[in-house]
Amino acid sequence: MSQAxxxxxxxxxxxxxxLISTAVALLAAMLVFLLWYPAPTASLLNVGNIxxxxxxxxxxxxxxxxxxxxxxAKPRRELIQDxxxxxxxxxxxxxxxxxxxxxxxxVAYVFEQDRLVLVTKNELYTAxxxxxxxxxxxxxxxxxxxxxxxxxxxxxQSLDLSLQGISPAMRPLQWKNWDWHDPKLQARxxxxxxxxxxxxxxxxxxxxxxxxxxxxxxxLPLVSSRKLDWIALxxxxxxxxxxxxxxxx
Length: 249
What we know:
Layout: H1 3-36, H2 41-44, H3 47-69, H4 76-103, E1 106-112, E2 115-120, E3 143-147, H5 152-163, E4 175-177, H6 183-188, E5 190-191, H7 197-207, E6 217-223, E7 230-235, E8 240-244
Parallel strand pairs: 1-3, 2-6
Antiparallel strand pairs: 1-2, 3-4, 5-6, 6-7, 7-8
Helix pairs in contact: 1-3, 3-4
C-alpha cells in the first residue's frame, strides 16, 4: 500500500469527521450564544474569543487525529476503536469547555448605586443565602434586580465583602425586584443628549444613527467583570432598547 493510498483513505474519514464536528460545533454555538450568552452579554464578557479558541482546538484536533490514525491496513475493529477513542476525547474536551462556559454565564442585570452590573453565575456570593435563595438555576433568560443595603450592619458587611471583590450586585441576599420608578434609579438615569459629542458620535457609529434623533432615550453605565465602558439604553417608559460599547461615566 502506497502512502498516497493511505492518505486518500484517511482523508475520506477525516472529511466526514470534520463535517460531523462542524455540525456539533454549530449546535453548541446555538446553545452558548442564543441561550446562555444572549446579546449583548457575549460581547460584555468576551465569550466570543474564548469560544472560538475552544472550538478551533476541538474541531481541528479531531479530524487531524483521524487523518493520522486512519489506515486501510488496519483491521476494521482496530480502526473503529481508534476513531471512537478520538471522538470520545473530542467530546470530553467539548463537554469541559461547555461546562466552563455554563459556570460563567450571565444570570442577572443588577442596578448598583450608579450603574447596571452584569453578574455571572460564578460571581454570585451564595454563602449567606437561604435554601429558598437559589439564583442562577434557570437555564433561560437573565433576571433584573436592584442591589440594596438596608442598615449599618449590612453596610459594614458590604464594605468588608467589597474589599474582597464581592460587590452588592453579586449578593443575591441584597437583591430586590427591579423597579423602573425607584427614586434611586431615576436619580441616576441620564438623557442620551448629556453625553459628549465624541461619545454621541460613537453611539451613532455603533447604532447606525437610529437613536440620534430620539429625545426619549435614557442611559445607565453598564459594566461587567470584563468590560467597564458600556451603556444600557432605555426609553422613558423603562423598556430596554440596546447596549453599546460607549463609556457612560
